[in-house]
Amino acid sequence: MVTLVGNGWHPWLFREEAKSLMGEIETIHSRIVSIQLSENTLSRLSRAALIDDVLENSETHVIGEGTTSADIAEAISAWAENFLEPGTFAVRSRSIGIGIEGISTKEIEMDVGNRISSEINKVDLADPKVEISVVIAGQTEGEAHPDPLGDSPSVVVWGVRNSDWEREKYSGRSPTERPFFKPVSLEPRQARLLISIGHRPDCEVKHVVDPFCGTGGIVIEAALQGMGVLASDLDSRMVEGTRENLDWVNGGYRAEICNASEIDTLWGPTDGCLFAFDPPYGRSSWKSEDGLNLFLSAISSARRVDPSGAISTMLPTGPEVLSQGLGEDFTVMGVKWSQLEELIAQRGWKVVLKSPIKVHRSLARMVIVCHPAD
């Protein structure tokens, strides 16, 4: 088993991302899951946007009333007898969620180091052979995004940090750092997330198709992962800008001027497609039938390109959805969700995931993933 520690921005989407990439997961905490190890685990996980850490040979203990730092250090020391290989090591401990009274990450690091240090296992904080990662996971507090899991029991998880894993870094490719920039540009983490949650464990994404490419935020992330890029937009300036940005990251691509409703004519039948897009979300773009009809015609055209593909998108909604239960019939793209879901189904798609994300005070977006209905 491998344990994944998720980013705190959106714990629910972290878990959904893990399921999309890897299949079945075991939830330990809202921000911690475990998965089965396979030969392509790290390759699949490298596409993630919300995974912070990957631990092997991990162990989990529930933190009960009266649990102390010394109790945790003792348990880690017992685990180390079976899993710590000869060589230098370091203990890195951190907390996520609400802090827990009586638990100190510094005390755990020092105590564990003193307990397991020996002639064959010496502490090396600068360049250790093995890094023991300890995560103290308390309850969540003040989260901006709803989570159907609710509050998780406080736990401590530790294991050997996978030395081949490196969390994705976005520095150097934020929207304002690209050659072509517009204020509507999607930031890299969200663009990467739209791609990752569109995966399916039994299907390989060969092409990312964006019929509303804008400045190219989504297809940049696809190109950086070695996926085929099929980008289009009705605005010629956006297409030229996307080409400029893709050349900047040395990505292979095809980018053309096209109405989103006609991408089947543009690209023709193509297998292995993920249709990942962020349609225009200004109020003038979605509080009218024109915006809704364009979205529906785009997913109809997508179905003709690849009837076995998947859709991953973010649709505009109101901020009230962040406080409502997802069982409520909220408004998305200017219509009730029940109506929109039926319209999507009529075009051959089945919604398998919906989750709101906050944009700003007066706007949220609903992340939606669709698979073929048949």
What does this entry look like structurally?
With 374 residues, this protein is α/β, with parallel strands linked by helices. It has two domains: 2-161, VC0802-like (2-Layer Sandwich), CATH 3.30.2130.30; 175-372, 3-Layer(aba) Sandwich (Rossmann fold), CATH 3.40.50.150. The protein is 29% helix and 27% strand. It is built from eleven helices and 16 strands. It has helices spanning 11-22, 41-45, 69-83, 105-116, 188-196, 217-224, 236-248, 263-267, 283-286, 289-305, 337-346; strands at residues 2-6, 26-29, 32-35, 51-62, 89-96, 130-137, 155-161, 207-210, 228-233, 254-257, 273-277, 310-317, 331-332, 335-336, 349-360, 363-372. The chain has a seven-stranded mixed beta sheet. Strands 10-9-8-11-12-16-15 form a seven-stranded mixed beta sheet, sandwiched between helices. Strands 13-14 form a two-stranded antiparallel sheet. The longest helix is centred in the last third of the chain and has 17 residues, at 289-305. The chain is elongated.
Keywords:
single chain; 27% strand; VC0802-like; 2 domains; alpha/beta; 11 helices; Rossmann fold; 374 residues; seven-stranded mixed sheet
Short description:
The two termini are 33 Å apart.
Strand content is: 25-35%
Order the strands across the largest sheet as they lie in space: 2-3-1-4-7-6-5
What global shape is seen? elongated
Structural class, please? alpha/beta
Task: Return the domain count.
Answer: 2
Return the average pLDDT rounded to an integer: 93
Order of helices and strands: EHEEHEHEHEEHEHEHEHEHHEEEHEE
Low-confidence runs of at least 5 consecutive residues: none
